[in-house]
């Protein structure tokens, strides 16, 4: 059995698809399953059992001998939420319990961290573990992810294999339910369909022109390729960046979305919302050398390749992966 937490969510459901493609069909899907808009993400997937996240540890105590691997993808990911107690429960303490169970039952673990831990990038975007305690995340979500990374590195007792993945800006199918937190590609597509134009955030940083804010956008299909690589690899434990390794502008992203629809770009700019303006990352770019150094040699899809696949094969017709 392979456990996937956050199974009904964006990355978790795509990971289950990838596992099914590799003929791993005994999947234990862990989530709260109370959000009906996420239900289509699991339709057609081969899942052995659904377990509510609050009953998961009791279930694991009874079934651990059958478990081969745990992907802990589930988390509260709202970067605008300011109540840290929510993140403390779901992102920190829950993750600690999974960590302890993986030690006790000798189960390898991959868990989701985040590039939000890097803050404004004052220390760069290298997954150097010695720098992690010095990072300055910009919001409670990023703080919770960094807190757990620091805690994991400090532990004397660890799972025999574990990896934390700092997801950069992931986009792709199965994110329909995420609302404001969905990728800019998703929002750009919907804006084009509704009005024929895309509104991007105006720059409030004199070092960046409007639309030239840059992020490391990574396609979810590449993300799940890395996840399954680590499941098969099971050595070189540690914390790894997971981005494309190449920063691209939001203007590039919007233009690529128009081109995927066979349209000429029409792009305008609006002020960045006040509640995120002071905590806005103007540049991110993952240094991917560490993952490459342990043998991951697959190329990452370019922004144009990923957007074309996402738009033409999933967003048009609202299909799920």
From TrEMBL:
**PANTHER family in the record:** ADP-L-GLYCERO-D-MANNO-HEPTOSE-6-EPIMERASE, NUCLEOSIDE-DIPHOSPHATE-SUGAR EPIMERASE
The answer to keyword Isomerase applying to this record is: yes
Q: Which cofactor does it need?
A: NADP(+)
The GO molecular function terms of this record are: ADP-glyceromanno-heptose 6-epimerase activity; NADP binding
Q: Which residues form a coiled coil?
A: none
Which lineage? Answer: Bacteria, Pseudomonadati, Bacteroidota, Cytophagia, Cytophagales
Q: Where does substrate bind?
A: 169, 180, 187, 201-204, 215, 280
* Gene Ontology BP terms: ADP-L-glycero-beta-D-manno-heptose biosynthetic process; carbohydrate metabolic process
Q: Which UniProt keywords apply?
A: Carbohydrate metabolism, Isomerase, NADP
- EC number(s) on file: 5.1.3.20
Which residues are involved in binding NADP(+)?
A: 10-11, 31-32, 38, 53, 73-77, 145, 170, 178
Instruction: Kindly tell me the pathway this chain contributes to.
Output: Nucleotide-sugar biosynthesis; ADP-L-glycero-beta-D-manno-heptose biosynthesis; ADP-L-glycero-beta-D-manno-heptose from D-glycero-beta-D-manno-heptose 7-phosphate: step 4/4
Cofactor annotation remark: Binds 1 NADP(+) per subunit.
Q: How does it assemble?
A: Homopentamer.
Task: Quote the catalytic activity from the record.
Answer: ADP-D-glycero-beta-D-manno-heptose = ADP-L-glycero-beta-D-manno-heptose
InterPro entries named among the record's database cross-references: Epimerase_deHydtase (IPR001509), Heptose_epim (IPR011912), NAD(P)-bd_dom_sf (IPR036291)
Question: According to its UniProt entry, what is the function of this protein?
Answer: Catalyzes the interconversion between ADP-D-glycero-beta-D-manno-heptose and ADP-L-glycero-beta-D-manno-heptose via an epimerization at carbon 6 of the heptose.
Return the similarity comment.
Belongs to the NAD(P)-dependent epimerase/dehydratase family. HldD subfamily.
Is NADP found in the keyword set? yes
Q: Which residues form the active site?
A: 141, 178
- What is the official name of this protein in its record? ADP-L-glycero-D-manno-heptose-6-epimerase
Which gene does this sequence derive from? rfaD
Pfam families cross-referenced by the UniProt entry: Epimerase
- Print the domain comment field: Contains a large N-terminal NADP-binding domain, and a smaller C-terminal substrate-binding domain.
């Amino acid at each position: 059995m392979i456990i996937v937490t956050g199974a009904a969510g964006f990355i978790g459901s795509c990971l289950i698809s990838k596992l099914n493609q590799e003929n791993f069909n005994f999947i234990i899907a862990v989530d709260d399953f109370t959000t009906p808009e996420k239900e289509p993400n699991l339709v057609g997937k081969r899942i052995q059992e659904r377990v509510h996240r609050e009953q998961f540890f009791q279930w694991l105590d009874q079934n651990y001998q059958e478990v081969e691997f745990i992907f802990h993808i589930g988390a509260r990911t709202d970067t605008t939420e300011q109540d840290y107690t929510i993140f403390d429960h779901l992102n920190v303490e829950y993750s600690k319990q999974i960590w302890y169970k993986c030690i006790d039952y000798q189960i390898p673990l991959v868990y989701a961290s985040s590039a939000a831990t890097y803050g404004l990038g004052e220390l760069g975007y290298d997954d150097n573990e010695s720098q992690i305690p010095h990072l300055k995340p910009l919001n409670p979500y990023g703080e919770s992810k960094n807190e757990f990374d620091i805690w994991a590195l400090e532990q004397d007792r660890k799972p025999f294999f574990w990896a934390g993945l700092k997801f950069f800006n992931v986009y792709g199918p199965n994110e329909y339910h995420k609302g404001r937190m969905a990728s800019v590609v998703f929002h750009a597509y919907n804006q084009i369909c509704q009005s024929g134009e895309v509104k991007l955030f105006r720059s409030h940083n004199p070092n960046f022109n409007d639309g030239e804010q840059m992020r490391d956008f990574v396609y979810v299909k590449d993300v799940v390729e890395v996840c399954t690589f680590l499941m098969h690899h099971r050595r070189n434990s540690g914390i790894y960046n997971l981005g494309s390794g190449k920063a691209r502008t939001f203007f590039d992203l919007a233009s690529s979305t128009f081109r995927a629809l066979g349209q000429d770009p029409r792009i305008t700019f609006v002020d960045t919302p006040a509640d995120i303006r002071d905590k806005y990352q103007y540049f991110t770019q993952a240094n991917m050398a560490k993952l490459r150094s342990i043998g991951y040699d697959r190329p990452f899809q370019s922004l144009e390749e990923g957007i074309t696949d996402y738009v033409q094969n999933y967003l048009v017709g609202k299909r799920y992966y």
